[in-house]
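User: Please fill in residues for this 188-position structure.
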């Protein structure tokens, strides 16, 4: 019998709208309209516990800490996905580099590690992480396609140039073949 390894914290069992409020407190440093802070500044974990208690929900400081770390990491992945989609809008030769492939690989590795460490992620949270990972991977694939298309176009132009010159100069077809293969790397 397969065991479900997902654990659910006290925060995971709260109503979705309430979890969204706590998420905004953690990620966006936003105070709820129906709660006045005890200290100025951004909400702290202690403030979140106090807010939950005020609203009749019992959560521990450690549960809030784990939830906060998870939500901040998810927010980072969502932001990474947005940045990757923005880069993909106008892929150019300057952007189609090995650096992007390396970044996509690093984000993918970090994502797999993150999901492995956070077994209590909900289906929607896993979907958000997978979306960011998909976006990061697609940039590597599209960068490779772009580079190959650019190379193909250069090879085609070189072949046309060689053929035109050879026709004007009456170059032996065997010499032309050697030029194509050894100088330009065009296999015919």
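Assistant: Residues filled in for all 188 positions:
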């Amino acid at each position: 019998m397969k065991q479900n390894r997902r654990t659910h914290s006290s925060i995971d069992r709260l109503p979705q709208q309430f979890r969204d409020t706590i998420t905004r407190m953690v990620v966006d440093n936003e105070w709820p309209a129906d709660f006045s802070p005890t200290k100025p500044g951004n909400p702290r974990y202690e403030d979140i516990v106090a807010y939950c208690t005020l609203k009749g929900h019992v959560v521990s400081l450690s549960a809030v800490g784990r939830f906060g770390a998870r939500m901040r990491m998810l927010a980072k992945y969502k932001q990474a996905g947005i940045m990757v989609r923005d880069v993909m809008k106008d892929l150019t030769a300057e952007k189609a580099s090995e650096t992007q492939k390396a970044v996509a690989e690093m984000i993918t590795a970090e994502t797999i590690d993150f999901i492995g460490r956070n077994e209590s992620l909900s289906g929607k949270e896993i979907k958000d992480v997978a979306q960011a990972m998909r976006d990061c991977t697609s940039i590597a694939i599209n960068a490779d396609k772009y580079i190959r298309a650019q190379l193909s176009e250069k090879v085609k132009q070189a072949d046309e140039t060689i053929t035109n010159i050879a026709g004007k100069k009456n170059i032996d077809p065997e010499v032309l073949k050697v030029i194509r293969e050894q100088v330009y790397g065009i296999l015919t």
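For context: Helices lie at 16-27, 45-54, 61-89, 98-117, 123-169, 173-183.
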